[in-house]
Amino acid sequence: MTRWQKFLYWLRKRNDENGVPSGKAAFPLSKHVIQFAFRSGGIDYFQMNDVFNLPYQRGLEAIHAYEELEMRCDKNYLMEHAKVIDEIVNGTRIGLPELERIRMANDQLRQRLDWVVVPDQVYKLASIIYFDASESPTHYELGYAREKIKRWKENDDVDAFFLQKPIQELVPFLKGFSGNFTTYSNLIQAVDKHHWKNLSTKFSEKPESATTVKR
Fold it and tell me: 3-state DSSP call for residue 138?
């Protein structure tokens, strides 16, 4: 921790009101209105007072992350899906086996769209919206974001993180989820592994079964 970071930490603690850190104290040079969001692993995280009015760079990253969250698929998955379909339809012939492979690929994509939420995508969006005192509130650094996500996973279990009020306000449909997120996250990872294996074989093999998670 640099001297400047130590000073900000001291100043923040000095200006805490009722145990809630002051965004102004943590970011005295910022022109934005910043407020405390939550604490994880002993580190305070902040957010803009209006998450729909983010600084330009964080705003663009947030749009991309939220689109992926809404689709339940990241760009890599969609590109691989399109590649598989292209290779099937551009083959030497289109018969019943090829049509069946296209149907299976489409069914798998639809299954992903039925998922409630992909935990890693929520972490990614949260890493953009929430920042600590060592970060620039206007700029987003992917490398440091990965460190934050790793800390969140290590310092709080999945259930504790996703049940925090700021996270549920960021992703409203989490409020209606009553299950165990640790179990859910493990299930999603297993299903995702099956889906990628099916894509890698271009559905030439019988797809492995995987549990469908509904809304």
Answer: coil
* Strand partners of residue 34: 48
| Cross-strand pairs, 48 | 34
Q: Are strands 43-48 and 34-40 parallel, antiparallel or unpaired?
A: antiparallel
Integer Cα distance of 123 and 162 in angstroms: 9
Distance CA 60, CA 74 (A): 16
Show the low-confidence residues of the chain (pLDDT under 70): 1-19, 116, 176-179, 206-215
Residue 59 has which token pair?
């705003």
- From the centroid of its chain, how far is CA 61? 11
Supply the pTM of this predicted model: 0.77
Backbone dihedral region for residue 113 (phi beyond 0: left; psi -120 to 50: alpha; all else: beta): alpha
The label of the residue with tokens 């339809």 reads 89
Q: Which residues pair with 35 in a beta bridge?
A: 47
Instruction: Tell me the domain boundaries of the chain.
Output: 3-57+119-176
